[in-house]
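Researcher: Go.
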Amino acid sequence: MSNSQSNDHHHSNNLTLDRRNLLIGAGTLFATSSSSSPSPAAAADYPIKLDGAVKRVVVRPRKSRTKAEKEDEEEVLVIEGIEFDRSLPVKFDVYVNDVDDVMGGPDTAEFAGSFANVPHGQRRGSSKTMKTGLNLGISDLLEEVGADDDDSVVVTLVPKFGKGQITVQGIGIKLQG
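Model: Structure:
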């Protein structure tokens, strides 16, 4: 278990894992909880309907953090208000890139993780619409793309299944200790 995972576990003893806070990012499992508000992109840009690849410039809470600060607090990409029909399979991939590389596509960006819904049997009387969120730890990824000293990053959402069936209410970044 890495130091950041160990610290996350240490600081969140009451954390319970469910599909709302379990992350699969870059081949690693992370557990998160929502504690502070993320720094959002412009509110006028939302909601976003994922009917194709969508890019947003997202402001970071702090840049040029020390190694000790990075070990104490993970920078977390927060995708809020993911809304879809729970009876349909949906999936989108999340990529992060340096603002200087904004013209590049997902092939030049770094993969941060995926969101997926696998439909299950529907309960009687339950709503077909589901609204949830996704949190992805991105501190190491920001160093890899050379965005550690940048005020903002480019986040790209690429629908894989359920194109046009997914809506996102907001994208931001927060520090989580």
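Model: The CA atoms of residues 26 and 113 lie 6 Å apart.
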